[in-house]
């Protein structure tokens, strides 16, 4: 990575410690500045404070789930309405509900954890960030 270029900031909100570590390690090795939170409440506070370029968000977590975190974040300001959010989940969402939620929440994406490897997640992150 070119030192003159500022690293893009990614917030990972994930309660599974092993997955959080693996995602953080992989994204850091690709030149991203990675922030971490283990629940939606901490993730929301960190997102508001740090304003990451993209958020990787688990769906089911203690204290505050990912959907609630996103809903609260999207009401804050212009940045929070537009920051890309990738939901990483093991839950197969109802397709119509997923499409409606994606239309309602611009820049929201859903990836099924079991169908992806780290390289594919990094590829999706790069794809989304290149559209900004």
Tally of individual helices: 6
Give the neighbour order of strands across the main sheet.
2-1-3-4-5
Percent range for β-strand residues: 15-25%
Largest sheet data: 5 strands, parallel
Keywords:
five-stranded parallel β-sheet, globular, 132 residues, alpha/beta
In short:
With 132 residues, the protein is an alpha/beta fold.
Walk me through what this model shows.
- The protein is of the alpha/beta class and 132 residues long.
- It has 6 helices and 5 strands.
- The longest helix has 13 residues, at 17-29.
SSE map:
Blueprint: E1 9-13, H1 17-29, E2 33-37, H2 40-50, E3 54-58, H3 66-73, H4 78-82, E4 85-89, H5 95-104, E5 108-112, H6 118-130
Parallel strand pairs: 1-2, 1-3, 3-4, 4-5
Helix pairs in contact: 2-3
């Amino acid at each position: 990575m070119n030192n003159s270029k500022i690293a893009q900031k990614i917030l990972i909100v994930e309660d599974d410690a092993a997955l959080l570590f693996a995602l953080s390690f992989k994204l850091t090795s690709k030149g991203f500045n990675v922030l971490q939170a283990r629940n939606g409440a901490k993730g929301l506070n960190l997102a508001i404070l740090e304003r990451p370029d993209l958020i990787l968000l688990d769906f089911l977590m203690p204290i505050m789930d990912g959907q609630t975190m996103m809903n609260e974040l999207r009401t804050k300001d212009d940045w929070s309405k537009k920051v890309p959010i990738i939901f990483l989940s093991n839950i197969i969402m109802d397709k119509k509900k997923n499409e409606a939620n994606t239309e309602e929440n611009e820049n929201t994406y859903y990836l099924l954890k079991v169908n992806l490897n780290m390289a594919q997640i990094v590829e999706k992150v790069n794809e989304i960030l290149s559209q900004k």
